[in-house]
Amino acid sequence: xxxxxxxxxxxxxxxxxxxxxxxxxxxxxxxxxxxxxxxxxxxxxxxxxxxxxxxxxxxxxxxxxxxxxxxxxxxxxxxxxxxxxxxxxxxxxxxxxxxxxxxxxxxxxxxxxxxxxxxxxxxxxxxxxxxxxxxxxxxxxxxxxxxxxxxxxxxxxxxxxxxxxxxxxxxxxxxxxxxxxxxxxxxxxxxxxxxxxxxxxxxxxxxxxxxxxxxxxxxxxxxxxxxxxxxxxxxxxxxxxxxxxxxxxxxxxxxxxxxxxxxxxxxxxxxxxxxxxxxxxxxxxxxxxxxxxxxxxxxxxxxxxxxxxxxxxxxxxxxxxxxx
Amino acid sequence: xxxxxxxxxxxxxxxxxxxxxxxxxxxxxxxxxxxxxxxxxxxxxxxxxxxxxxxxxxxxxxxxxxxxxxxxxxxxxxxxxxxxxxxxxxxxxxxxxxxxxxxxxxxxxxxxxxxxxxxxxxxxxxxxxxxxxxxxxxxxxxxxxxxxxxxxxxxxxxxxxxxxxxxxxxxxxxxxxxxxxxxxxxxxxxxxxxxxxxxxxxxxxxxxxxxxxxxxxxxxxxxxxxxxxxxxxxxxxxxxxxxxxxxxxxxxxxxxxxxxxxxxxxxxxxxxxxxxxxxxxxxxxxxxxxxxxxxxxxxxxxxxxxxxxxxxxxxxxxxxxxxxxxxxxxxxxxxxxxxxxxxxxxxxxxxxxxxxxxxxxxxxxxxxxxxxxxxxxxxxxxxxxxxxxxxxxxxxxxxxxxxxxxxxxxxxxxxxxxxxxxxxxxxxxxxxxxxxxxxxxxxxxxxxxxxxxxxxxxxxxxxxxxxxxxxxxxxxxxxxxxxxxxxxxxxxxxxxxxxxxxxxxxxxxxxxxxxxxxxxxxxxxxxxxxxxxxxxxxxxxxxxxxxxxxxxxxxxxxxxxxxxxxxxxxxxxxxxxxxxxxxxxxxxxxxxxxxxxxxxxxxxxxxxxxxxx
Lengths: 324, 613
What we know:
The complex is a heterodimer. Chain A has helices at residues 2-29, 36-39, 49-58, 65-77, 91-126, 131-145, 148-162, 181-218, 221-228, 233-270, 276-286, 289-317; one strand at residues 176-177. By secondary structure, chain A is mainly alpha-helical. Chain A starts with a helix and ends in a 7-residue tail after the last helix. Chain B is of the alpha+beta class. Chain B has helices at residues 2-30, 37-48, 176-188, 197-200, 247-250, 296-304, 319-327, 365-374, 377-384, 412-421, 450-465, 477-481, 489-492, 509-513, 537-546, 552-569, and strands spanning 89-90, 94-99, 127-129, 135-137, 157-161, 202-209, 212-217, 258-264, 268-273, 287-292, 310-311, 332-347, 350-351, 354-358, 389-390, 425-426, 432-434, 437-438, 440-444, 469-472, 497-502, 572-584, 588-589, 610-611. In chain B, β16 and β17 (432-434) form a beta hairpin. Chain B is globular, with a radius of gyration of 29 Å. Mean pLDDT of chain B is 82; it is low at 1-91. At the A-B interface, α2, α3, α5, α7 and β1 of A face α1, α2, β1, β2 and β10 of B.
């Protein structure tokens, strides 16, 4: 097992280098650039060619693209992800200081979504074709088909603009200095809307998987055997059935983790949450290459690790799966 | 049996552990080796502790290394009621401003891109403009002029004098040495400064006394009022070769009403009242939080529920919604026509940029005049723009050099008559022709702007009604404005009509230069810019004369004549000018619009704002 993990991690290295090459090229060959605004005619900030050159050289954009890539890769291998064009600060520091906030929002939403999806999916499977089942399936379809930005704006309109119940911006009240429980409550108030939006979507896609794999498992022979030998129904459902139903769910669950981090960009932008997703959006607008590359590499790593995690979990859940 | 059971247990435990540990593994795994330990620890706390858990010793902000400074004792704080000791203490009367985009660097001295407006809280210009476009001294003791003797007879030597007893926010005096240092920094800084023409043309800066410098210019600079627009505090720097990571580039020390305290990346900038502000008793507001809020809907919702006090930079497309919110009594919203940015049809006078070959259709004055009469500006403004724009009659509609001129009325009959008289006869499909040339032109505007696309179609219809065919051929921004080297259509002259927005500042010179022959881009002049490849020696001469004296009355005369020429010749069809709007919370008052401050608009007068509730 350990060997397997080590091998997979080693395999990830060339994969990451490949990803970095593609990402680097796509990014730098796309039209526009960090200086596009400064160079544009009529931008109001007319710089002389010498001043522009000075700026370009300070970004390291004066070299041809392959040299730039090699320089970048060399620096990254030494742990230097370059400096942001916008702020001049080290890209890795900038990205990592935004990561905790993203994780706070996404993992809270993820945890709530998993809980709700498990309960909902199991209930829907147990009471198959009942009102509960229909209600949950409908909710799930609504959740999947509603774009997150739309539900976010609707929630804002109702709870912030019209009712004035919940804050719309940020993660805490800038006008008050809270401590203790009041600070926690303030934080919860600010998290309600963004977490709801994120939870809704994840819950919706997960609950369908839980429901269908539970349905499959509930009719299997070993559950009948378990019941026959007198195991409590609760244990049958939550231990015997859920464990076997969990295998396909785990795939979705783990693969959604990096997706969540990347997908939080919209929610972060709308609710003005200082997370990594929003950093990515804003850096994309201003073509802040060092930041973009750092975020992309971080998300790529996250995807590779989630895949590995999914594979390891299979092995734990299903004795038939063995890794060498 | 027991063996099997333990195995199952182990597996179950593992499963539980895995479920809990997914997050931790993900974080630990994806953190590159160079990560400093504290960040990791912070990340772990953020994930492991859901917000519902017991009170955390580390407070709300998860990342901030900068949160501490705001904790300074506040004497003005209202005493909390004795019974509610747990209740939060108020942070004084704090103003919360929303801005869509976080600036890279705050200091206006270095920030040539958007977002530098934040610096107005702490940095003040030497000379500013009032709403009429007239210069007013801010840090200057007086505006240099010929009358007060600060400008020499040959216009090349100008004395700049500071107000006495000015202090930087840290209490150090502002002196002539700071002015001299500022010019040195323009030349030597390692961070590309936001250089303006006045400083480019400076030859020497000499100290006259503690408050006065004498600047010798290499050549006459009409931008002399922009000199020292941002002054650097010399005592904060080791040398004028300012390094990239100097803290003053991010949060500058200035003389303004507020002092920057901290900047939490991606979230907010915090500023507090400057105890050394030059006006006694101001500002009335204790502290300011600038909250980066990218989404416009969120800004509005937060303004309505009282979370925010002021929205920085209201765009034309926000105004309809803001006006509705105002009518519902949720926010304050005011507008003021600030005709500085003009939306126009720039008519190409050349064939593919060759000014020796006049444009087959658009070089005919009858066509241009007919277009001017054919377009119903009122309908565009009222229906498409929701009334939030003003019609303008000249290229310089406001300021000290404004040309007051009657509007061209909407009169399609007159347009038709003009074309008939000029020999443009209706041909196939109702399109006019003259000498085998069809009155058919392409109109290009940047793709992706839905509002523009709407009135572009209206214009197409207006022109069709008088027999001119306008084919819509929109292109991405970079194709149009790519400059000479980037093969931009506007610079190369490879278009018939481009519809875009542009305009001048208080001084019309730079804007009018865009219509002179010498400024037309070419291999020899790749940095030039033109809006229509117009070439008229008479116009060139007038603009040149306007730029070769510092006598304001003289300059106004020349620019008025030049502007009148553009209008009479109908070199561009001016559609409308943007108006300025400010949106703020019900508890804020004293907000005034000054449209000349393109970026800061009302914010520059923040010292006068009052929080009433």
